[in-house]
Design goal:
- The strands form eleven sheets. Strands 7, 10, 11, 12, 13, 14, 15, 18 and 26 form a nine-stranded antiparallel sheet that branches.
- It is flat, with a radius of gyration of 34 Å.
- The protein has six domains: 92 residues, no CATH class; 166 residues, P-loop containing nucleotide triphosphate hydrolases (Rossmann fold, 3-Layer(aba) Sandwich), CATH 3.40.50; 144 residues, Beta Complex (Endonuclease - Pi-scei, Chain A, domain 1), CATH 2.170.16.10; 78 residues, Homing endonucleases (Endonuclease I-creI), CATH 3.10.28; 51 residues, no CATH class; 239 residues, 2-Layer Sandwich (Nucleotidyltransferase, domain 5), CATH 3.30.420.
- By secondary structure, it is α+β, with helices and mostly antiparallel strands.
- The termini are far apart.
- A hairpin with a 2-residue loop joins strand 24 and strand 25.
Length: 904
């Protein structure tokens, strides 16, 4: 089928009839219009030439979803305009932004071991914000965690003996020996196509990951010393038997003083002063094993430990499969530990159990751990053993891949999916550190532009943050070519260069990562830009965008999902796309398909889910989304992820903190006004929090009144002050709401433009007369003169330690916020329906510390521009901190003295 153009020169000023013909369909429109034959041509290319590459659709004709065809492909390729200079019709759009929610996860059995930043855990225990290891060994943040759900599952076994239980739809980044390329495949697909060829060869391998990278930790015994003792040390004593003086020297260099010594055949047994106590502390005396602290230490510390073990009980084997090394032990726990240790260092280790024989006598089981090693990265410390190894040959060897040898169904299993913040989207699972993994539309567009867009010498580029991410779409395109009878004959694939060439037209498709130097000099006809939201800056975008001028109808398609709404390149491009969507004439050459759930939409209403998830109900499970919503509604961190990855809402680094249905459930008895409530609670012990804020804005004071015991409710009172002008300003935003609260007594309005601090101190002194204020925490910004006056009004001496002023840092605010949240969740935080406090808690977002995801503080709104106020939250956290400090200092007798505010 061939397309014809009929761009007839017209003597009239109006453009000629389009005349584009495809499949006997001719366009008779003129001027800017939607050209049906062009749209039909592209949709037909997907259907007739391309095939799906993933899951249950693999190898089947690529039938675009209705929303993909009608809302993206058809208008993007079918809308044309008359170019008076070129005297022909060209595509209207040169840039396209496509933004929909993510739908792909990696589902593993909930009991699968995972090495996280805080140590060993399981898939089922992971939370958003936790850190796990990517395939390059780095620690990366878990962005999203699904609800637990059941799926048909398989036990996947590898050549090195490792096993992982994964759901049928879990995605793996595999090397496909039959296709000759790396690609993404589901567990079910691997199970169905595990072997190939007449001999039944194993088809799939996964790459052996790089060593996991972790920070140095403080260890009670030098790692090499512990390794050597675990191998050759006496189980009950601080002594070692070895023929190698270098090992003894290592103990001495580590600070252990040699004591007794006696010869034992060719070796010497030597004791060391100072070794017994740390061995006992580690629990390894008469119980040889590798403690967890050593298995999760830094790469250098783990390698030192391995070298100690291998110098003691390891050897280098000479033979046809050199250089192989072996560790042998009769202690199962030690064998298991060395297996995890060596794999964490990037070695492909196999473990074999056999019988230990001595002079024909069976002495029980033994375990032999073997792997390939090279002199350049020797697992030995001893020169005599290292010298038996060869240097690395400088090319990839089979030791860098791990074959999948079996995939066996194990029935329905409870599984969890996660998404990680890494361009590869691959994370390491199990104690074997096995690497586990909506690019089809982009790949299809790239191939269309390469072979079917009537462009000679077309240059098509796949762009992304780095080579791994750019290669993700390329791998799908490569797979499409290999599975298409038409494209397989026409195109040549160069795997290493990540390049596909069409020799008929001199066209090519290749990847260009942002971290690649020299991105200028291209002449692109087409660009597919994946995951635009994670680009660090505009350098690659600008380089490619400004290179598009020489082509007749170039096209750049950028796809992504919601990201960080802070000031960054991705957020700026999203904001511009939103402006174009609202006013297309702002950039008539830009096509937008943005499926972001409106910020004010109810996130728990299922009717609002379909906008960001057009595939919901087809290849995206509605039930799975329901389960995630239930969890997210009761967990602010999961709500943040649900909004970003399921509702496609751009989120700041902060996330909404308080689930308001829990807040409402913790109300206690409702007060009509605060005056009667204060009278009712008079005489109780209280702890205060003070935040004076700006002179022209809301100022808050909070009192927490603990109950009689650890199970009793905690009453919480606030005072709020606001100057007249502040009321006027906030009323404009909220339809007079602050004036109504002032009339009801919830806010005290002071005359003029600024808060009257005399009135503030008088009111707080009144609380000092009615309650026993035991301690106060204050924001240091509140100024010491005012703090001193308030302390005196409450009957406190600010020099006594009963008043603490500090900056509201992450480490200061986190404990108080956690205590408040725990009390709310247990329905013991009785706020008595204070409407101003509710307004603040509803608006509050918290931000995690960049150095520790477990620390957080309120994200303060810009008072000059924002409509929200969060003063009630900050003061409640400070009051909770004052209470906690009193308990920790022993001023009260309470179970909290040992446990803090812990709610089961």
């Amino acid at each position: 089928m061939a397309a014809t153009r009929r761009n007839v020169t017209s003597t009239r000023r109006q453009p000629p009839v389009c005349g584009y013909t495809w499949d006997d369909l001719e366009c008779e429109e003129r001027g800017e219009h939607w050209c049906a034959p062009r749209a039909v041509k592209v949709i037909g290319f997907f259907r007739d030439i391309l095939v799906h590459t993933k899951g249950r659709w693999a190898r089947k004709p690529f039938r675009l979803e209705q929303w993909q065809a009608d809302d993206i492909v058809s208008p993007l390729f079918g809308t044309v305009r008359w170019d008076a200079d070129l005297k022909l019709y060209v595509r209207r759009y040169t840039i396209a932004f496509i933004e929909i929610s993510r739908k792909n996860g990696k589902a593993l059995d909930v009991d699968t071991p995972i090495l996280a930043g805080h140590g060993w855990t399981t898939m089922g225990e992971l939370l958003p914000g936790d850190r796990v290891h990517a395939a390059d060994g780095s620690l990366v943040r878990v962005q999203w965690v699904s609800s637990r759900h059941t799926r048909p599952s398989y036990r996947v076994s590898f050549a090195d003996g490792a096993q992982i239980t994964a759901a049928d739809d879990h995605k793996w980044l595999v090397n496909d020996r039959r296709a000759g390329c790396a690609r993404v495949a589901t567990t079910a697909e691997i199970a169905e196509t595990l072997h190939y060829g007449g001999r039944g060869d194993r088809r799939y391998t996964v790459d052996v990951p790089d060593p996991v990278r972790r920070p140095d930790v403080s260890l009670p015994i030098d790692p090499y010393v512990l390794g050597a003792w675990l191998g050759d040390g006496t189980a009950s004593r601080g002594e070692i038997t070895t023929p190698d003086p270098e090992v003894i020297d290592a103990f001495t260099a580590a600070g252990y003083e040699p004591t007794y010594a006696y010869r034992n055949s060719a070796a010497v047994t030597r004791g060391f002063r100072g070794l017994m106590v740390p061995l006992r502390t580690l629990g390894v005396l008469n119980n040889k094993h590798i403690p967890d602290a050593y298995l999760t230490a830094s790469e250098e510390q783990r390698m030192s430990l391995l070298r100690g073990l291998m110098d003691a009980d390891g050897c280098a084997m000479i033979g046809p499969r050199v250089p192989r090394v072996e560790f042998c032990t009769t202690t199962r726990a030690l064998a298991d530990g060395v297996l995890i240790l060596a794999r964490s260092l990037g070695f492909k280790v196999t473990s074999r159990e056999s019988r230990a024989m001595l002079n024909g006598r069976d002495c029980g089981p033994r375990w032999r751990l073997c792997w390939t090693a090279w002199r350049d990265r020797s697992p030995f410390g001893l020169a005599r053993k290292t010298n038996r190894l060869n240097s690395h040959p400088g090319k990839a060897t089979r030791s860098r891949t791990n074959a999948i040898v079996a995939v066996e169904p194990v029935g329905q299993r409870e599984v969890v999916c996660i998404a990680v913040d890494h361009p590869s989207h691959v994370f390491l699972a199990g104690q074997s550190f096995t690497p586990t993994h909506n690019s089809e539309l982009l790949a299809g567009i790239a191939l269309y532009l390469l072979v079917a867009d009537d462009e000679e010498g077309a240059e098509i580029y796949g762009c992304a943050l780095d080579r791994d991410q750019a290669g993700k779409v390329f791998l799908v395109a490569e797979r499409m070519v290999l599975l298409s009878a038409v494209l397989r004959k026409r195109l040549k694939i160069y795997k290493q260069a990540k390049r596909i060439i069409d020799e008929h037209t001199g066209s090519f498709y290749e990847i260009v990562p942002a971290d690649h130097e020299g991105n200028l000099g291209h002449d692109p006809h087409g660009i597919v830009f994946d995951e635009l939201e994670v680009q660090k800056d505009d350098s690659l975008w600008t380089a490619m965008r400004t290179a598009m001028g020489s082509r007749t109808q170039p096209l750049m398609v950028a796809a992504g999902t919601a990201g960080d709404a802070g000031h960054n390149f991705g957020a700026d491009q999203h904001a511009e796309a939103e402006r174009v969507a609202e006013d297309p004439e702002r950039a008539p050459h830009t096509f937008t398909y943005l499926r972001n759930t409106p910020k004010d939409a109810d996130p728990w209403d299922e009717a609002n889910w379909y906008h960001a998830n057009p595939a919901l109900g087809s290849f995206l499970s509605l039930q799975a989304l329901r389960e995630e919503a239930v969890e997210a509604r009761n967990d602010p961190a999961k709500e943040h992820s649900f909004r970003q990855y399921r509702l496609n809402q751009w989120q700041t680094g902060a996330h909404r903190w308080m689930p308001m249905h829990l807040w409402q459930a913790s109300c206690g008895n409702m007060w009509l006004n605060p005056v009667d409530g204060r009278r009712e609670l008079a005489g109780r012990v209280a702890y205060g929090g003070l935040d004076l804020a700006a002179k022209f804005d809301l100022t808050a004071w909070c009192l927490i009144l603990p109950g009689d015991d650890d199970e009793s409710p905690v009453d919480v009172l606030w005072r709020f002050w606001l100057p007249e002008n502040g009321v006027v300003k906030l009323d404009r935003y909220h339809d007079g709401l602050f004036s109504r609260w002032a009339q009801q007594g919830w806010i005290t309005v002071t005359d003029g433009d600024v808060v009257d601090y005399d009135r503030v101190t008088d009111d707080i002194a009144d609380d000092g007369d009615h309650f026993v204020v035991a301690a106060v925490d204050a924001d240091e910004w509140s100024m010491w003169p005012v703090i001193n006056r308030i302390a005196l009004g409450c009957g406190l001496d600010s020099r006594s330690g009963a008043v603490t002023a500090y900056r509201n840092t992450f480490d200061r605010m986190s404990p108080g916020l956690d205590d408040v949240m725990a009390l709310v969740r247990s329905e013991r935080f009785h706020h008595h329906g204070n409407p101003v406090a509710r307004f603040c808690f509803d608006a509050c977002q918290v931000k995690a510390a960049p150095f520790d995801a477990n620390l957080h503080r309120p994200d303060k709104p810009d008072r000059s521009a924002a409509r929200e106020r969060i003063d009630a939250v900050a003061t409640a956290a400070m009051a909770a901190n004052a209470w906690r400090a009193a308990l920790d200092n022993g001023k009260l007798t309470s179970a909290y003295e040992d446990h803090g505010l812990v709610i089961a």
